[in-house]
Amino acid sequence: MVNMDKMYQTADWKKEKHVPVLSIEGGTKKGEWIQVHAQVGQEVGHPNTTGHHISWIKLFFKPEGEKYPYELGQANFNAHGASVKGADSSTVYTHHKGLFMFKTEKPGTLIAESYCNIHGLWKNEMDISF
Ligand code: FE
User: Fold this and answer.
1) How far is the CA of 54 from the centre of ligand 1 (A)?
2) 8 Å CB contact between 130 and 33
3) How many CA atoms lie less than 13 Å away from 100 in the CB half-sphere?
4) What is residue 21's three-state secondary structure?
5) Is residue 23 classed as helix, strand or coil in its secondary structure?
6) Which pLDDT belongs to residue 8?
7) Buried (b) or exposed (e) across 44-65, using 16+ Cβ within 10 A?
8) Which of 43, 57, 84, 87 is the most buried (most CB within 10 A)?
9) CA 39, CA 43: separation in Å to the nearest integer?
10) Domains of the chain: residue spans and CATH
11) Are 112 and 9 in contact (CB under 8 A)?
12) How far apart are CA 16 and CA 122, in angstroms?
């Protein structure tokens, strides 16, 4: 059986380019819309090429005192320079940043996962309180 915690890597986002960085706007009181920006490589840039890129960022919210997290959404990044001419031959690239909106009646913890096609799964968390 796989130990799920060992599948994830995490680190200080100021030094490690794979960690999804979270920032929020709003959410200062119950039931108010919260905008969540999730970006990989905010401080230390991550490559974005056909061979090495961030494929997606996924976001969950676990309300305080509840057992299970809720899935809020996923941003997929699907253009990485590939074209009919081969790898890194187009000028079209998606950047690995997503914007999510949600509301909650309870404080809790945002959990972001990101996936690099070479360096695997990464995770970060942020508490929301009001
Ligand atoms: Fe990587």
Assistant:
1) 7
2) no
3) 24
4) strand
5) strand
6) 85
7) eebebebeebbebbbbbbbbee
8) 57
9) 10
10) 13-128 (2.60.40.730)
11) no
12) 10
Q: How many Å lie between the centroid of ligand 1 and the Cα of residue 75?
A: 17
Other CB atoms within 10 A of residue 67 CB: 6
Would the CA dihedral through 68, 39, 37, 89 be positive or negative? negative
Looking at residue 79, its pLDDT comes to 98
* Tokens coding 88: 């890194």
The one catalytic residue among 37, 62, 97, 119: 119
Q: Position 99: which residue type? A: L
CA 92 to chain centre: 21
**DSSP E strand stretches across 3-47:** 20-26, 34-40
- Catalytic residue from among 30, 52, 95, 103: 52
Q: What is the pLDDT along the chain (130 residues), one digit of tens a residue?
A: 677 778 888 777 777 789 999 999 998 899 999 999 999 987 889 999 999 999 999 999 999 999 999 999 999 999 999 999 999 999 999 999 999 999 999 999 999 999 999 999 999 999 999 8
Residues in the chain: 130
pLDDT at 7: 83
